[in-house]
Design a protein that fits this description.
CATH class of chain B: Alpha Beta
Number of strands of chain A: 13
Distance between the termini of chain B: 15 Å
Number of domains of chain B: 1
Number of helices of chain B: 7
Strand order of the largest sheet of chain B: 6-7-8-3-9-10
Shape of chain A: elongated
Distance between the termini of chain A: 27 Å
Number of strands of chain B: 10
CATH topology of chain B: Rossmann fold
Radius of gyration of chain B: 18 Å
Helix content of chain A: 55-70%
Number of helices of chain A: 14
Oligomer: heterodimer
Largest sheet of chain A: 9 strands, mixed
Largest sheet of chain B: 6 strands, mixed
CATH superfamily of chain B: P-loop containing nucleotide triphosphate hydrolases
Structural class of chain A: alpha+beta
Helix content of chain B: 25-40%
Order of helices and strands of chain B: EEEHEEHEHHHEHEHEE
Strand content of chain B: 25-35%
Radius of gyration of chain A: 29 Å
Shape of chain B: globular
């Protein structure tokens, strides 16, 4: 019965309810999308970076993917005590800027790759890829974005006309790798006429405890070489590289929270009008035995119900947009895919509840504080 | 609905009540040291010009307003200084209030409007349904239970409001110009209902009205002027008391 009353009061002014709902839904939509970018960054760092891996780039390169290191460094790095495996990787990117249209090819060594990276793909597909020069493994996100399928031959004119045959599509949820095209490093080097040049090295250690020590040793080893190195744990390296982007994300989050505050004012205004129109009814309820607290709760239920409904709408819309939009942001060679986690959904619901509660609490208390007789007399 | 068997018991005692409020720049005193005693089972009519304090008196009895001085004792309880929450809870069972403008919830059906005050009582859903049915039947609107107020005539709305007021079986019914917004036919029906409630079920009724016709159902009429009772004429309805209440049509 009380739910009926709440629902029917919400439907009493359908246009106002719809407009208020849309306002809250839009705010939650923006809020969720911005938080999803942050979620995507965190997830990317978590899934892409490995605690046991050191990565080595060329020192003094503003954009690490543009670093150029001689491949033979790998042999010297492998000699350092505590190093278990070294793999040179060659990057080929469409852009090093922040972009929503990043295409990235990683030239890897198929026999070593699986020591370093965890991707989900069938052994048959992986073996086909490993045994065929000119074959590629494509991350699910990129394959979906361009509609590529196993067996397709692809030529990327924007990446120096590199051409390959798709031999497998792999999954690496959350990882930047999902947006990457993997090819054999040697094949890539010959395709672009730059043999013996790597972008980076990934270094697997026998003991994670020696991470800093080995990093220092690598950098010291090449300190007097023409191409000096910058080494470090992979996670912190990625975080450092995308720091500027993270500043931007944090700033946009502040804007999103401010938008919620603005919507709070809009909700409060809407509830104030609604309460104002129903002073007589609220007085009547009190005459019939409803305490002030009960009347306040009725208004709160009404407002929170509306706001939570709007939040759910905003969350669903955000999920649809993020899911069907297949957005991916390329930053410094890493691809960030917005990620809508349970935590973000709960936070958005909490934000909706917050809007509903704090948007109505003051108007509700104000409305019920009016003496019954005054409220009845005022409108009668 | 139960019949109040108590006889000649004082149910309302107003003692030297003064009520003043500010209207714009002017202090208005609708009640000025007014005294009143109402016995159980009475049908008291309060008459007087606008602003004479009739409605204020009803509001004080119902505990929805407080006097500046004096005492309001209802059902042997001095409610004058009770806090709002206590008054609200007390009103659930003690008072049925009928307004001139019906004051039904427009978003609820007739049934739901009558059910509303019953939701506050510790009774089962089945019992609640039974009480709503009885109240609607008593006012002759069982067939309009699913109608919204906007789908009812003024007279029917007021009958729903009466059903709402009596659903909780209150000891007394306070009616503030219940026929003031009705045509004569609907007004007669409403008055007859009130008379039934008084005579058949022994409810104490205090009714404010300007209508002398309405007053003819009362057992006592009091006139208020400038916040004081000016006379207490003979009850005009001695003759009616012999009418069998059962004959009255709701």
């Amino acid at each position: 019965m009380m739910l009926k009353l709440v629902f029917r009061n919400l439907m009493r002014r359908p246009l106002r309810t719809v407009l208020t709902t849309l306002t809250v839904a839009a705010a939650v939509l923006v809020f969720v999308c911005l938080l999803a970018v942050d979620g995507g960054v965190r997830r990317m760092v978590e899934e892409t970076g490995d605690d046991a891996v050191i990565i080595v780039f060329e020192r003094y390169k503003a954009c690490p993917p543009y670093s150029r290191l001689p491949v033979h460094y790998a042999d010297q790095i492998a000699q350092i005590p505590g190093v278990q495996e070294v793999m040179p990787i060659r990057f080929l990117l469409s852009s090093c800027q922040t972009t929503t249209d990043l295409v990235a090819i990683h030239g890897i060594e198929p026999d070593k790759f699986r020591y370093f990276r965890n991707i989900k793909v069938s052994d048959d597909d992986y073996n086909s890829f490993a045994n065929e020069r000119g074959a590629a493994m494509v991350g699910r996100a990129t394959a979906n974005r361009y509609g590529w399928q196993v067996g397709d031959t692809v030529t990327l004119q924007e990446l120096r006309g590199v051409s390959f045959v798709v031999r497998g599509i792999f999954d690496a949820p959350g990882s930047s790798l999902e947006s990457v095209i993997l090819v054999d490093r040697h094949f890539l080097e010959y395709s672009i006429n730059q043999v013996g040049v790597a972008t980076m090295f990934t270094v697997l250690l026998e003991d994670v405890g020696h991470m800093d020590e080995v990093s220092r040793e690598i950098d010291t080893m090449f300190a007097n070489y023409p191409a000096q190195t910058r080494s470090g744990p992979e996670k912190s390296f990625i975080t450092g590289n995308i720091e500027e982007f993270m500043h931007m994300v944090r700033f946009s989050q502040i804007v999103a929270y401010l938008a919620l505050v603005l919507v709070l004012v809009a909700v409060s205004n809407s509830i104030s009008m609604s309460v104002r129109e129903r002073l007589r009814e609220m007085a009547l309820l009190r005459t019939r035995g409803f305490t002030q607290g009960m009347v306040v709760r009725l208004i709160l239920y009404e407002s929170v119900t509306g706001a939570v409904t709007a939040s759910v709408t905003g969350i669903v819309l955000a999920a649809l947009i993020l899911s069907y939009g297949q957005f991916a942001i390329g930053v410094e060679g890493y691809t960030i895919t917005p990620y809508l986690s349970i935590k973000i959904v709960l936070l958005a619901l909490l934000a909706g509840t917050f809007l509903g509660f704090f948007g109505s609490i003051l108007p509700a208390i104000h409305g019920t504080r009016q003496p019954i007789v005054t409220a009845l007399r005022e409108v009668n | 609905m139960t019949v109040d068997q108590t006889e000649n018991k004082t149910v309302i005692h107003i003692e030297s009540v003064r009520k003043t409020y500010r209207k714009g720049d002017v202090d208005v005193t609708p009640l000025n040291h007014a005294n009143l005693t109402v016995q159980t089972g009475e049908f008291l009519v309060l008459m007087g010009p606008s602003g004479s304090g009739k409605s204020t008196l009803l509001n004080l009895i119902a505990g929805i307003d407080k006097p500046n001085s004096g005492q309001v004792i209802v059902d042997n309880q001095n409610i004058t200084q009770w806090p709002e929450t206590r008054l609200t809870v007390w009103r659930r069972r003690a008072i049925g209030y009928i307004f001139q403008q019906f004051n039904l919830m427009p978003v609820l059906t007739a049934y739901e409007n009558v059910e509303l005050p019953l939701l506050l009582l510790p009774i089962t859903r089945q019992k609640r349904r039974q009480l709503v049915g009885t109240a609607l039947e008593l006012v002759g609107l069982s067939d309009r239970a699913d109608h919204y107020p906007r789908q009812l005539s003024g007279g029917q709305e007021q009958r729903v409001a009466i059903a709402q007021a009596i659903a909780t079986d209150p000891k007394m019914i306070l009616a503030d110009e219940p026929t003031g917004a009705l045509d004569s036919e609907s007004a007669a029906t409403v008055l007859d209902l009130l008379r039934q409630l008084n005579q058949r079920f022994g409810k104490t009724i205090v009714m404010v009205t300007h209508d002398h016709q309405a007053a003819r159902f009362s057992t006592r009429i009091l006139h208020l002027e400038k916040g004081r009772f000016v006379d207490t004429p003979e009850a005009p309805l001695k003759a009616l008391s012999s009418v069998d209440a059962a004959e009255a049509t709701p």
